[in-house]
Each structure stands twice: as structure tokens, then as C-alpha cells.
Amino acid sequence: MKTIIANFKMNPSSIEEAKQLLELYKQEGKKNQNVDLIVAPPFLYLSIAKQFNLELAAQNCFYEDQGAFTGEISPLMLKDLGVHYVIIGHSERRQLGETNEMISKKIQAVLRNHLIPILCVGETQQERKEGKTQEVLKIQLEQALLPNKDYLLQAEKIFIAYEPVWAIGTGDFCDPREASETMEFIKNVIVSHFDIRISNLIMIYGGSVDSKNIDNFLKQVEINGVLVGGASIKKEELVKILAIANSY
Ligand code: PEP
Asked: Is 156 in the active site?
């Protein structure tokens, strides 16, 4: 069984459209029960999404449980709502100034509240050109996870999304075999540092996945699933993507 994480990003722009999209996810989720489907709408639509009986992820969270943090949403609030997953360290958030230190604190807050983190890591085009991909990934993983060793020991599951920054929203997806090799590297870094059972580590690829290329990603044994951004809000695409994933 493969995992599909649908990241709506900051879409759609009205509650009515969100409801239509969520209804389609509900129907397609029922049709394709051999898919672990996780839907990540904007915060504002999470409580509406609950009514559609979908497994939900938040796209971000803050690292404190409550207090004077205007504009932030805590993992405690997400947990109370029935959200089980939180995307942490998405490159679009890193571009807005999120540091590895903040990401590490967020991972801790998520694990402390017994939620499941989806940690995103990935290199930029420049870093890739300079042959620094592995170095960058290792730093991102170590800085996010090393301070949280004790929490990780007790974690039910952790998701790592390998999302090359140059592949996100560009149509320029990573070669699936290359992605798979990089994900094997990521797995080795984690296993060498932490006492995490391999079966609790879920490896996800993200970056311009659509109905045409998804099959080549899901074929790779290292790849447990994909994170879909742009294509996740296109109705025809999501129908095709879920049908293909259902055949694994
Ligand atoms: C994402 O939002 O993480 C993502 C991979 O987006 P896209 O599928 O549009 O590249």
C-alpha cells in the first residue's frame, strides 16, 4: 500500500470550493481503499475537512502548546481537532525564513503531542549543481532530528519527504531512480543516528508529481508514497493519481 499526501498549499480561495474538493477526496478515498490518503488543506479548512472523514495533515504548526503567539496554531489544537499529521519544514516555509532550529523545535512539539511529523528536506538547484545534495540533506536531517532523539525513540511513525526544492511546482521532477537512491541515503543517515525501527520510517517523494509520472515513482521500492502539491487541487488529476496509487 502506498501513501498519497495531498498538499493544497494556500488553495482553494473559498469555503465552497474547499467543500467541493474535499467531497471529491471523500468519494475517491472510498473508491481507492488501497491508498493511505492524507489530505493537507489550509488551517482554516481543517475543521470543515473533519466532516468529510478524511485523514488530515496540517501544513505547519508552532512549537509551543499555547500562549501569547499571535497568528500561530499549536500541535495541541491540531490534536484536539483530530488531526494526526503535521508537515514540517516545507521548502516554501523555509523560504519564508524557517530555520533548521525552528524546524527541530516543531518536530519536538509534534512528537510531544503524539502527532506524526512529515519532515520535508531537499536541496536547491544551486546546491545540486555544486554536488552538495547529500551534505545539505545530512545537515537538515541532523539539525531537525538530533535534538529530538528521545522523542524519536518513542515515535509511532515518522515521515520523511524528500522534496528537491528545484522540483517543487516547476514541472521539473527528479528522475525516480535518482530520487530513490537519495532516499536510501536519507534512510541510512537516520538509521545510523537513531534507534528507529525501519518499519516506522515512511519515505515520501515530493516535487511535480502528477498522473503521468506518479507510476514511475511508486514503482521504486524505496518510495512508500508521494506528496502532491499543484496536482492535488486539480480534480481530473487527483482522480487519476488515486486510481494509479490504488493498484500498488
Ligand atoms: C509540495 O507542495 O510539496 C509539492 C511537492 O508541490 P508540487 O507537487 O506542486 O511540486
From this structure: no
Given the residues 92, 123, 163, 237, select the one marked as catalytic: 163
Question: Can you list the alpha helix ranges (DSSP code H) found in 130-234?
Answer: 133-145, 149-154, 176-193, 214-218
How would you write the pLDDT of the chain (248 residues) with one tens digit per residue?
999 999 999 999 999 999 999 999 999 999 999 999 999 999 999 999 999 999 999 999 999 999 999 999 999 999 999 999 999 999 999 999 999 999 999 999 999 999 999 999 999 999 999 999 999 999 999 999 999 988 988 888 999 999 999 999 999 999 999 999 999 999 999 988 887 777 789 999 999 999 999 999 999 999 999 999 999 999 999 999 999 999 99
Q: How far is CA 42 from the centre of its chain?
A: 14
Task: Report the nearest atom of ligand 1 relative to the CA of 170.
Answer: 10
Cell numbers for 69, please give them: 503567539
Kindly report the pTM of this predicted structure: 0.96
Q: Which regions of 8-126 does DSSP assign to beta strands (E)?
A: 35-40, 57-58, 85-88, 116-121
87 in Cβ contact with 40 (< 8 Å): yes
Residues framing ligand 1 (Cβ under 6 A)? 7, 9, 90, 163, 168-169, 206-209, 227-231
Exposed, middle or buried by CB within 10 Å (0-12, 13-18, 19+), for 18? buried
State which ligand 1 atom lies nearest to the alpha carbon of 87.
3
Active site residue 90: yes
